[in-house]
Design goal:
Radius of gyration: 18 Å
Strand content: 35-45%
CATH architecture: Beta Barrel
Shape: globular
Number of helices: 4
Oligomer: single chain
Strand order of the largest sheet: 1-3-4-5-6-7-8-9
Largest sheet: 8 strands, antiparallel, barrel
Distance between the termini: 53 Å
Helix content: 10-25%
CATH class: Mainly Beta
Order of helices and strands: HHHHEEEEEEEEE
Number of strands: 9
Number of domains: 1
Structural class: alpha+beta
Length: about 200
Amino acid sequence: MLKMLTLALSAFAATAAAQPMTCVPTRADTERLSRLEQAWRDGRADAIRGGAGPELRRLGPVADPRVDLNRPQPTPGRYQCRTIKLGAASEGMLPYIAYGWFRCQVTLTPGGDLIVRKTTGSQRPVGLVCPDSRRKARFVGVLELGDETRTPRYGADAERDLIGEVRRVGDDRWRIAFPWPAYESKLDILELRRTR
C-alpha cells in the first residue's frame, strides 16, 4: 500500500512539474495585444515627459515601435537580456526604468517549439515564440517570480500571464514588447542580445 501511494505521488509530482505551454492566448491577452500600439504611444509619451527622451534615443530600434525587419524568431542559444519599462501604470510609479543585464536562453524543443526563458533575476518571463508573420512573432507565456522553481501554468493567473510581440531589431538582437503588464508599467520591453 505504501509503495503504491509513493508511486502515485511521484507520478502526480512529475505531471504537476511539467506545465504545458501553448500558442493560443487567453481572450484577455488577445485584447491586450490588440492595444499594443496604444501601449507604445502612451508608454513612450510618459517616458519622454519624465525626462527619458535621451535614453529612448540611445536605445535606438529597441524602443522604436516602427522597426520592421524580417526573421522575427530568435535563434536558439544563450543571450544577455534586460527589461525596460515604459510608462507609469499608476500614480507614483516611475515613467522609465532600464534594468541591468541578466541571462536568457532560447531553446528549440524536439517537437519544434521555440522557448524563451529568462534564467536570472527576480522577474523571469518564460514562454513560446509563436509564428505570426515574416516580420513579427508572438510570445505567449508566464512570469516566474522570486525563487520559484516551478513555472506557473499559462491561463491560471491573469496577473502572471504574458503576451508580447517579438521583433528582430538588428544582427543577433531581438525585443519582446509586452503591452499593459500587470505590474508597474504600460509597456515592458525584453531586449535580447545573442552571446557568442
